[in-house]
Task: structure prediction
Amino acid sequence: MAMRRRLFLRGAMALGCSAAAHPLMTTLTLAGSAGGRPLGEHRLIVIILRGAMDGLDLVRPAGDPLFAGYRPTLATAAGAHDLDGYFALHPGLPGLMPLWQAGELALVHATSTPYRDQRSHFVGQDILEAGTGLDLPPGAVRDGWLNRMLQGVPGLRAETAFAIGLEAVPLLEGRAPVRNWAPDTRLDLSAQARLLFDEIYHEDPLFQAAALDAMALTAPGVLGDGAAAAGAHADTDALAAFAAARLREETRIAAFSLAGWDTHRAQERGIGKALARLERVILGLKAGLGAQVWGQTTLLAMTEFGRTVRENGSAGTDHGTGGAMIVAGGAVRGGRVLGQWPGIGERALYEGRDLLPTTDVRHWAAWAMRGLYGFDQGLLERVVFPGLEMGADPGLLR
Amino acid sequence: MRADPEVVAFRFGYGLPLPEGAPLDPEAMLAALAGPDAAALRWPVAGMEGALPLMQAERETRRQARRDSGAKAAHRAARAALEAAQAAALRATLARALDSADGFRERLVAFWADHFTAVARSGQDALLPYALVEEAIRPNLGKPFAAMLTAAEFHPAMLVYLDQARSVGPNSRGGLTQGSGLNENLAREVIELHTLGAGAGYGQDDVRQMAELLTGLSYNLKRGMYFDRNRAEPGAEAVLGRSYDGEGLAPIRAVLADLSRHPDTARHLARKLAVHFVADTPEPDLVAAIEAAWRQSGGDLAQVHGALLRHPAAWGPAAAKARQPFEFVVAGLRALGLAGSDVAAMAPKVLSRHIVAALAAMGQPVKAPRGPDGWPEAPEAWITPQGLAARITWAMQAPVRLAGALPDPVALAQRALDGRADAALLRAAAQAEDRREGVGLVLASPAFNRR
Result:
């Protein structure tokens, strides 16, 4: 009895979170892992930007005089950060420029899923997260591409991948076990209550295991060095701190979503908030991971489709096709705008209104997975992204 | 057969204490089920006739507000009316589960509503899934499965959710002139989820033919569900080797009737019922008995539900399943002594925080499963670190906000668990620092969360 209580209490502070700092817990709870980590040392973070991020506002073709004509309101605000003399980064992202200069940030332009023409958020997100092409009818594939990647990993454990937040992350759903956690979950229990839960959960392994993990995940200090997130950006900071804390330990894959990109009107304000949040998450991850782990990290932020080239009558943009993708991390060969730029001349536009997609988002994700983990190209083209032709290696990683 | 009241309450109902007049053996439970739907009368929820005017008003005022900013207040009012109806439907759903002596009916409604999952994809459609339950599920619990199947597939909630309202026969008048085409979503789910089951003996060609057969089945805000000849693919279609021809809805009704009686449907749904109510790996004999009742009766749900309740394996003592979050919250409210009238009078903020947000944190956002396959069944899908933390938090924090004076934890354990409260739990309930934590321990215990 006494042993059990001590185990539970210690578990409440330490389990799974800090195996290195608590060697006793390591032997007790991680038995069987034999030290070998399923995916090696590389970390992959995938962020789904829900609502269709305007890639043309993120990475502006400022060098083309047509751009200001298409966007009399949106393209004129000063302060965009020059990237390469032609493209400029949205003015609201000064914090990402040091990453760009250090070669830790790449931007992919004119990319999209194979989805075309109907421009529905739901269908677009379903296709983005299922990782399917148009050869498969919607609903034919129920799991997400990141989960299918995990299904090919021997020795996988649930901690290997985390879906973070209360929002569903279909990208990570499927047969392979993954953990789910919302960082704002609290578990305020007295020491006595913890002891008593130990008593009543003892005979039920399912409850005991879940409670141990829950207590560990809510223990003080889990979110970095004991710094509790506070203030206006508490949710964002908690998200980044939690993801970083997991990724420093056993976790190799993290996925979550950020909303707020559906900017049909007053886009300047709307996308400004969403981009500031994204910047905060990226910088929070970098800080939380520390230099060494950041150096082994690749972050992909992708969206269901882009937005119209022309702004609409409400200083916003409507649903489009080609969009942009953000690639960040110390493992990335950055400082480049990637993809094939189709131009924004009238005749280059898709259906006369949208940026023409010239690459498939899955191409970039597939090469990232191949580069990070060495997956067989056949597996990526048949199982993870059924029907994808990966094409030539874009050299995404260092 | 004299049944164990704990099994009646936990496996086939919403927990202890059983409401006044609750039937206590299989025959009495089935007799109650065959009788009038008292809970629906006591706590009414609007069907399409109530939902459509609210939805029309919302759309109309939204359009006006886009043209004329002076109309914004009218749109806000229309939106608020829609949201109020949505909250009322949720309150009624909770109240029925909480109050009804006919608990098996409420649990069956939840089971079949999940089987025919339809999720609102926007606030504008929020009333549709509730209307589907009122119009397709509740009235058909004692009828042949074909009746429920047809009502569910024809329901606006389903036609919108699974994109049938967008599907156009390629050779129909609309298809030839507009160039729009077939959408296979509903056709696939009718076969894969609602009837035969994944892996049964059908192919992509059957799905395609089914999709062509379903064209014409449509919905809009003005008319509700209707048959649109201009979208209907002309000619006969062959599904599972049988040809369906004719005008209007008749061939669609015919294929649904055939699917409802198909042996693969009987096998799929017999197992699904046993898995939901009894165990993830149910005794083969129990599944076989339900399947046989399905096949012999042509899918008469009264017979099917009877076969489940009348089988001894349905009454074994092992609590192999986890209460889903909705069941957990209802059972918690009941254990705390709340009635439907308390839920009806609950402040919107309390409802939103301690019911709506709490269910989402536990992994079961109200009426919003992630896909058309509905909620998962395995206890492991619910008793996760996140899910259990949310249950513990609810057990510790909600009762004092919902019930006012907290009960004595030991008395609560006895009332809500009866013989399922073992010595360790009673001891823990007595040793808690205060009532709040004692109540929390009882409600978050495995005994309370398993069924």
